[in-house]
Design goal:
homotetramer; alpha+beta; Thiol Ester Dehydrase, Chain A; 6 strands; globular
Chain lengths: ~150, ~150, ~150, ~150
């Protein structure tokens, strides 16, 4: 995984990362390498749940989406990435001022790609591992994307 | 699981369901029974991803949160519910006008509660199973909730 | 899923089910329908763990393998089924005289197939749900099976 | 996690590791540290499936059991470890002469312990990551172990 990806592709992926629901959630791309993607979010009140902790759904969404983009770094532009499934463990409650997600590809492949995501809770600048996910992804050629039903 | 839960408790849970991130995501409680919770969301543009499909994170958040509230229906008011982990499979792309989530408790318990959630994609009124999750939850007494680290 | 599968195919799948590690574990096919597979095992001492409960690995192996064969019932003979991943929740300790596993396909597909397995602990003839698994499988054409690395 | 565990405890855990189903599967403890457990198995024909690959159930059982013992290294002798659930991804087919499993604790806790297991396929001495699991465990005091139903 030591090949470089072109700057142009990085710029595209960084922008593409923050659209739709992800833009609504205010997640942003941070670091992009081949087989690796890092994202972040500054926590606001609407990311929390009733007790003040950051909602599990925020972390799950971030773990899934960032894993998907780590997979994107390993395929050509003609491919889209779909999530087949993921599993996430919440290791410690998160309540800090930001989250950082680091996703790396565990297994590359023409079709099935497996990534894992680690979510760190940033508390006064200190990073604490708050959640960890394993994500199974599928690379689908753009022309075949409309797989309904 | 055929005992009834008081109307007052139902009203509390229905309101409590839609706070913080969940309110931001516009999910709403629909049906509440002992060991069962149903929620819904009317899909807007900000729930979708770049290709127009409903984002996996929307479904994951809904599956997790609704499962948590199905667990809530089985414990007394002194307990809070935390998600330990969950796993979700995306069975078919979702692209309809609404989602409905049905969560039911598979295993009750004083501490560990297991629920499963089914997410249906509503397309012109027809419901299609789009995702299924298994969620491991923990009932924690309010007095012990601050379990940091 | 109401199409029938030929008796010849059923006989083949029933025999094929109990080979290698599965034969060593003494699991046997019981009921085969399109999109459904049921298996059983009579519990002996070597299926238990140190405290007398049936080992989680016995249930996990049974959930995985039987799910795989439920997928087998939906593809033609030219395809093999590989497990991409699975997740299993242990709902209650199992300690009975037999296990029964019921696997059904949740999502058919040319490549990705999702099944779920329920493991019942048989105690003096009564069946108690002991574990539940979700299994992601892949149909691979026999000619492409040697996918190393 | 840099505290040492007594040699006597290590000896106990190494022996305790290989009982019942695990003995039947011929898995053996190899390295024991606080928060870490390593096991191995020499592959025989009965560990394989119909196509000659090592059966997913062998890897799942090893991932689960070894994770459980990594948790054991973090609790006192009065506690037993139960698996609540686990999820395993099969990254590459395994077909070598041995498997090695390395499990480490991601989150310690008085009750809930999270470990991850990596299974390496040993092929002519070279180790290839073949599977990875996340395991949710529960420490239960021996006196409370009989939690039926």
């Amino acid at each position: 995984m030591d090949e470089e990806i072109p700057q142009e592709r990085k710029t595209f992926l960084a922008r593409d990362y923050s659209r739709g629901f992800i833009k609504y959630c205010q997640f942003k791309a941070k670091v992009i390498e081949r087989g690796y993607f890092q994202s972040t979010v500054a926590i606001e009140e609407h990311h929390r749940q009733q007790d003040g902790f950051i909602h599990a759904g925020v972390m799950a969404t971030m773990a899934d989406h960032t894993a998907g983009y780590s997979a994107f770094t390993t395929v050509s532009e003609d491919f889209q990435i779909l999530t087949i499934e993921f599993k996430i463990n919440f290791l410690r409650p998160a309540f800090g001022e930001a989250l950082v997600c680091r996703s790396k590809v565990l297994r590359e492949g023409g079709q099935i790609i497996i990534s894992e995501s680690e979510i760190f809770d940033i508390r006064e600048g200190e990073a604490e591992l708050a959640a960890k996910a394993m994500v199974t992804l599928m690379a689908v050629h753009r022309d075949k994307l409309v797989l309904k039903g």
